[in-house]
Amino acid sequence: MTGHTTARQRLTAELLDALRTDGGVRVVTGEPGCGRSTFLDHAARLFRAGPVRHVRADRAHELDHALRTATASRPLLLCVDDADLWDAPSRAALARAAARIRETGVRTTLLLTVAGHRPPPPELSDLPVLRLGPLTPAEAAPLIRERADSEVAPAVREELITEAEGNPALLLALVRRLSPARLSGRRALPRPLVDGEVLADVAGDRLPDDPGGLLLTTAAAARATGEEDADADLVLRACRAATDAPLPDLLTRSEGRLRFRSALMARAVHALAAPEHRRAAHLALAEAAREAEDILPLLHRSWAVPDPALAASLASAATDPASTTPPALRRTALVRAAELTPDGAERARRHLAAAEQTLLAGGVADALRLLDQARGPSAPTPVRGGAELLRGAVLLADGPVEDARESFLLAADLLPPHAAARATLGAADAAWSAGDPASCLSALAPTRTPPTLPLAQACVRVPQEPASPDEHRGGVAQVGATAPRPEGVAPVGDVSRDHRDGMRAVLLARFDLAAAPLRRVVENGLQGTDPDRLLRSAAAALMLGDVTSARRAGGRALAAARTHSSAALEPRALEYLAYAELRAGRHQLARTHAEEGLRTAERTGQRNTAAHHHAVLALAASIEGEADLVTEHAEAALRTARRHGLAQAETLAHWAAARADLGAGRPREAAQRLGPLVRPGPRRGHFAVWMLAVPCFVEAAASAGRPQFAAGVVEDFTLWAACGADPQAPSQLLRCRALLAAPDTADELYLRALDRHDDTAGDFERARTELLYGKWLRRRRRLREARTRLEEARLGFERCGAPLWAQQAAAELRAGGAAPTTAPASSSGAGDLARLTPQQLRIARYVAEGATNREVALSLSVSTRTVDYHLRNVFATLGLRSRVELVRLVEQEEKTGARL
User: Fold this and answer.
1) 888-897 mean pLDDT
2) What confidence tens digit (pLDDT) does each residue in 298-320 have?
3) pTM value?
4) Distance, CA of 795 to CA of 340 (rounded, Å)
């Protein structure tokens, strides 16, 4: 299990490192099939400090002797597997040994495993616990590759990972079940993929008797809602059980909810029950419900009595616009309604509606499967058009954007005019994301004929900035938000027309015609709470350069998505917020939004959106001077961008890498990286993004002694600055001209640039101008003026959290004979953490709170390797030797008022 082993080995190494400083004992637990025994074997293999002893229950009396053999020079690792199966006296001996290790600090590490689907033994309940969580998709994929005897198609691999829910044993059982033809995608997968036979293989004989039906009824109630727990009162009423009745060991109760200790056991209980018992449990839940016509009791009744007459009631409840039912439950009800519908056309409509709700709930792969069922030969033409419309939205969020464009165009041919307009706007969104302005204009044109505007001119004049790298995907690409209603079509309102008209005017460089329709889109969206219109509003605001409105619209869209449980909209709203904050010069806020957006995008299967969040994180890290993070996020963005044709994300990632080179004092490398992106030619970057990198390229070229290469692109940048959509561009343009100007005019240009910076927010760009002006002054021996500018630059970089750039300013100050001013350190030692970079500070804070390296990596959306690297640098910078010392330092600085 190479992939699984590698991930768990990293976790094990982190645990062994932590155990050396916090007591030496850990109970490792998790659900059946999570790999507890394998984890223990990894620990034994990785332990190099001394001997390893595996202790069995019948040898528990040897624990005291083993502890006496541990010495300072030869620590000991004791491994105990399945400690919960030991008898009570043996567990008591184990508890005494653990207490001795924790209290006396004897050089022994004790790792013991217990099952996670039952309550812990009372003798061990007070010991610190490490619960093995589910495998991530990145950890599961290598495991499939190793264990499969044949090629596994990407779509099959993704479905295996989804269905296994991170359980390694279940994942391997599914791989063993499938033939090479099914693994390769040549034959259809069995349905359901995870059935009782597979679950029995993993759960084994762990299922207890269920005489009162409480286990099965709880599992049935949770299955209906798609949640991990169930309403305790409803389940107990259905079972006619007392509210204070003792619970089976597999269940826990908290805040009125019943929950299985193991998700795998919940699935096994439901799947392995006799069909008549399952039907009885669902019928009891339907009859115990307070409102018989609500969606949940109708759903339970449909599973108890599969009556086609229930299909209409289910579909009506699931599509009620006044209902607050979350999309996941609507999807379940619509799928069940489709299963009970004998008419092929009506069944296709319900599959289409189910796919829309599935997408809103964040299920990309499941939505595509439902769309396949919605476009069969019996489906009406409008329904097939609606399916292609929604498929385009899916692919725009997670697939090749050229394929998305073709789906949108096909939808436009199938749908009636008022719905076809939505599809053509989606096709334009896809072309925009692909960096194809000709196709974008063609889709926006009334007849979709090729535009007369020369492509080179469009590439120069489109006013877009990293704040909106593909917000125009918002036409249909709010990942299902504007997908067709259940009947397969939806009316197109003025907002869509205004967005289309404004977008077309921007592409044609008719900014005088773009402002009015785009302003109407902004105002219309901000007047309501519809997340789709709010996202359109944010997109239009960013095109107009109205960052304040873009932030408001993005924030409201995020709140609306969460209120409506629209999981698929959250990463898109966070993308708008992240780019708006970047545009406003607040890169640390942008980073916060992008880190959360990346997690939600990965959770909902939106790889294209995740690529844009990676690009934001790379851009933010390039300001903060963290080269390893720039590389990591840029490479992640590029992997998806190249596979799916995301020209914008690709350009932004390259720009971030070049800016990191410039910040590290490597202007030649930065100029070489940026040259192909910003200069005319086949490798020029995305038409709406490349001009944003022009100021970096001009600075890099001038600093590398090659200003002649930058003159042409400055003239192109002049068009961008003149359009008024980027408040930073006018001051950046003056700075660029100063870099290329003769000495007798450069002075005035720098001063004019600084005056223009006074009209905009953002310390970083102003500090860059101050730095370049200070360098220019120092080289002309105007040292007093240079020191003033360089000190302003240093302070500006420090204010915005750009330490590497601040170091450049400090180095220039020293070269001019002045030492940079610094705040005196307090006698208590407070302020040591100020020596860390922003990312190191974040990691130090998480570690001080007790997080493992893996937990830190998940929180910050980076790899464990990156956390390891930064933590080593934290220890080296602060002169620390252990996590305990780091905790003490953090606590000390918090007490003295130092800011983390």
Assistant:
1) 70
2) 999 999 999 999 999 999 999 99
3) 0.79
4) 68
**Per-residue exposure over 524-546, b if at least 16 CB sit within 10 Å of its own CB, e if not:** bbbeeebbbbbbbbbbbbbbbbb
375 lies in some domain: no
Q: Do residues 82 and 161 share a domain?
A: no
Angle at 88 between CA 84 and CA 93, to 5 degrees: 90
Whole-number pLDDT of residue 388 = 96
Final residue in a domain of this structure, among 155, 180, 203: 203
Does 463 lie in the same domain as 442?
A: yes
Question: Closest by alpha carbon to 353, among 480, 529, 225?
Answer: 480
- Segment 172-201, tens digit of pLDDT: 999 999 999 999 999 999 989 999 989 998
Is 702 in contact with 710 (CB distance < 8 Å)? yes
DSSP output for 173-186: HHHHHS-HHHHTTS
Residue among 449, 444, 541 at smallest CA distance from 496:
444
DSSP string, 3-63: HHHHHHHHHHHHHHHHHTTTTSEEEEEESTTS-HHHHHHHHHHH--SS-EEE--GGGGGGH
| Domain shared by 789 and 880, yes or no | no
**Domain containing residue 119: CATH number:** 3.40.50.300
Tokens of 582: 């970047």
Do 284 and 221 meet the contact criterion of CB atoms below 8 Å apart?
A: no
Task: Please check whether residues 125 and 142 belong to one and the same domain.
Answer: no
C-alpha–C-alpha distance, residues 216 and 277, integer Å: 8
Is residue 900 included in any domain, yes or no? no
Q: Is 623 inside any structural domain?
A: no
Considering the domain architecture, whether residues 157 and 272 belong to the same structural domain is answered as: no
The answer to whether residues 83 and 99 belong to one domain is yes
Q: Kind of pairing, strands 229-231 and 257-260?
A: antiparallel
- Condensed to tens digits (0 to 9), the pLDDT of residues 720-733 reads 888 877 788 999 99
251-254 and 129-131 strand pairing: unpaired
Crossing angle (nearest 10°) for helices 417-434 and 381-398: 20
Distance separating the N- and C-terminal Cα atoms of the chain? 40
| Residue 736 to residues 171, 701, 723, 750, 773, Cα–Cα distance (Å) | 56, 11, 17, 9, 11
State whether 44 and 150 are in the same domain: no
Tell me whether residue 822 is exposed, middle or buried, using C-beta atoms within 10 angstroms of its C-beta: 0 to 12, 13 to 18, 19 or more. Answer: exposed
Q: Which domain does 683 fall in, by range? A: 643-815
Instruction: Average the pLDDT over each of 272-276, 640-644, 822-826 and give the range with the smallest value.
Output: 822-826
Q: What is the pLDDT, as a whole number, of residue 316?
A: 95
Identity of the amino acid at 299 = L
Residue 239 lies in a domain: yes
- Whether the CB-CB separation of 674 and 658 falls below 8 Å is answered with yes
User: Residue 112: what are its φ and ψ, rounded to 5°?
Assistant: -135, 145
DSSP 539-552: HHHHHHT-HHHHHH
- What mean pLDDT is predicted for residues 205-219? 90
Q: How far is CA 657 from CA 444, 640, 654, 661, in A?
A: 34, 16, 5, 6
Mean pLDDT, range 92-105, rounded to an integer: 87
pLDDT digits (tens, 9 = 90+) for 400-409: 999 999 999 9
pLDDT classification of 462: cutoffs 50, 70, 90: very low
Q: Looking at residue 245, what is its pLDDT?
A: 83
Q: Which residues have a Cβ under 8 Å from the Cβ of 837 and sit 6 or more positions away? A: 624, 625, 626, 803, 870
Q: Give the residue among 269, 265, 272 at the shortest CA–CA distance from 117.
A: 265
Integer Cα distance of 857 and 877 in angstroms? 20
- Peptide bond before residue 122 is cis, with ω within 30 degrees of 0: no
| C-alpha closest to that of 691 among 658, 719, 711, 663 | 719
* CATH number of the domain within which 764 lies: 1.25.40.10
Number of structural domains in the chain: 6
Q: Phi first, then psi: what are they for 260, rounded to 5°?
A: -75, 140
CA distance 443 to 432: 10
Q: Which two tokens mark 169?
A: 């044993």
